[in-house]
């Protein structure tokens, strides 16, 4: 028996074995091109309200990869940092445009799996989480989606994961941070763990996603070189509802203003 229902653009499948033993039921979430096992307790990490956030992250990463490849091709074709190269050599070097991604607080591994299946030219994705139970679920989902060649799970502190990759040859082209509450404690280590190849441009985007006031903050750091994506549930704090809390968390006070979401 298969019961499929559509809710918030997330497909939930309940598959019952022939013996109809409730203990053997397995549940799955299908989001984008990824399939997520939610049959174990660790699946409580899945938040369907954040699907739009994850969709937005995918779109931004896809555009980032495209922009980065164009920039690298332009540099090679124009002979920047040296003489122009033969077409064959330029083609071989386009592998430089493959990116490394860190999903610092991976939980179920859904973002990492969607990155692997929906974002082109990805060399490696690290799905990190502090919970051993979560990492066990990540490994299960990686295998179920067949992305073992791209996604690697790690169990550890998110800040340690970023600080241990500060050297130039280990830095990530994209880092995604999605904590519970404030993300301020992760920002210092995050900006040290993203690549910086000398392009200067910063773009900041904030979106009030729904009535729960989720916030998605996307920061372009060094245009066409690296990107830092941060999601947090602090929209009320950032909009000046509680200035004392905002100062304690971020060292600044948000303005209570009709354009507070844009700021």
Automatic annotation (TrEMBL):
Pfam families: TRM
Domain of life, per lineage: Eukaryota
GO annotation (BP), single: tRNA N2-guanine methylation
Keyword match tRNA-binding: yes
GO molecular function: tRNA (guanine(26)-N2)-dimethyltransferase activity; tRNA binding
Key words of the record: Methyltransferase, RNA-binding, S-adenosyl-L-methionine, Transferase, tRNA processing, tRNA-binding
EC number: 2.1.1.216
Classification via InterPro entries: SAM-dependent_MTases_sf, Trm1
GO cellular component: nucleus
Enzyme type, top EC level: transferase
Family: Belongs to the class I-like SAM-binding methyltransferase superfamily. Trm1 family.
Name of the protein: tRNA (guanine(26)-N(2))-dimethyltransferase
Organism in which the protein naturally occurs: Onchocerca ochengi (Filarial nematode worm)
């Amino acid at each position: 028996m298969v019961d499929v229902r559509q809710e918030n653009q997330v497909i939930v499948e309940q598959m019952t074995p022939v013996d109809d033993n409730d203990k053997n039921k397995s549940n799955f979430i299908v989001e984008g091109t990824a399939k997520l096992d939610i049959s174990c307790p660790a699946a409580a990490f899945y938040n369907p309200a954040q699907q739009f956030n994850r969709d937005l992250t995918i779109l931004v990463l896809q555009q980032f990869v495209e922009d980065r490849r164009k920039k690298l091709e332009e540099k090679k074709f124009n002979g920047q940092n040296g003489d122009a190269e033969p077409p064959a050599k330029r083609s071989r070097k386009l592998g430089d445009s493959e990116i490394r991604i860190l999903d610092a607080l991976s939980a179920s591994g859904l973002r990492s799996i969607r990155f692997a299946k929906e974002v082109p030219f990805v060399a490696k994705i690290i799905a990190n989480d502090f919970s051993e139970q979560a990492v066990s679920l990540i490994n299960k989902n990686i295998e179920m989606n067949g992305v073992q060649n791209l996604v690697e799970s790690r169990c550890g502190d998110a800040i340690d994961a970023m600080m241990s990759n500060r050297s130039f040859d280990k830095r990530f082209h994209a880092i995604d941070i999605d904590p519970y509450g404030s993300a301020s404690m992760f920002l210092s280590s995050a900006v040290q763990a993203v690549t910086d190849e000398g392009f200067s441009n910063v773009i900041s985007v904030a979106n009030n996603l729904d009535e729960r006031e989720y916030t998605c903050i996307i920061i372009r750091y060094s245009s066409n070189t690296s990107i830092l994506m941060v999601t947090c549930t602090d929209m009320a704090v950032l909009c000046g509802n509680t200035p004392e809390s905002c100062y304690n968390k971020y060292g600044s006070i948000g303005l209570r203003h009709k354009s507070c979401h844009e700021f």
